[in-house]
Amino acid sequence: MGQLVTPIHMMGIAALEEALAKFGRSEIFNTDQGSQFTSAALTEALAAAGVAIAMDGRGRWMVNVFIERLWRSLKHEDVYLKGYADGFEAKRGIASWIDFYNHKRPHRALGLRAPMAVWREDAASQKAVDMMDNAAALPTCPQQQQQAQPLAA
Q1: Pick from 96, 98, 111, 115: most CB atoms within 10 A?
Q2: Residue 42: exposure state from Cβ atoms within 10 A (0-12, 13-18, ≥19)
Q3: Residue 1 predicted with pLDDT over 60
Q4: DSSP H or E segment with residue 53
């Protein structure tokens, strides 16, 4: 029996095709295990494009730590604060935040520099960037637990 291809699956495939057309093939497609990402239609489209698939699972947080941190930052610093009225407003606002995140926002893991500044430096020197060299600076890195404070009576 074949797998049901729903409108959400078709939207995922359309988004994938648009991304491939605009930006070319990436080496890897990293996702969670939601049904829209595990559908035969999408995984076959990725395989046909020669894109490797990595799916997060229990205990696999390191595979996706950087993108999860990006989404958390986007939600807490922009989306939740602005409560966009529609998709058009969200597209403009999120694009503006992504530009800010990449070009202006200081990142502790990058010595308080913006990602594009680091990328340009490394591209000029042909040096590869490995964020794991400074993983302790990431907010997602395990931190020492704070001591619970007793409640005042």
Answers
A1: 115
A2: buried
A3: no
A4: strand 52-55
pLDDT band, residue 65 (cuts 50/70/90): confident
pLDDT at position 41, please? 80
Reduce the DSSP state of residue 31 to 3 states and report it.
strand
Name the least confident of 14-18, 56-60, 82-86, 108-112.
Answer: 56-60
For residue 129, give every residue at least 6 positions away whose Cβ sits within 8 Å of its Cβ, in sequence order, or none: 118, 119, 122
Task: Determine contact, residues 53/43, Cβ cutoff 8 Å.
Answer: yes
Task: Report whether 81 contacts 70 (CB < 8 A).
Answer: no
- 83: tokens are 């409560």
CA distances in angstroms from 94 to 7, 21, 74, 76, listed in the order given: 24, 21, 8, 12
Q: State the CB neighbour count (10 A cutoff) for residue 30.
A: 17
CA distances, 126 to each of 109, 115, 142 (Å):
20, 16, 31
Residues 6+ apart with CB under 8 A from 32: 55, 56, 64
Return the structure tokens found at 98: 């992504």
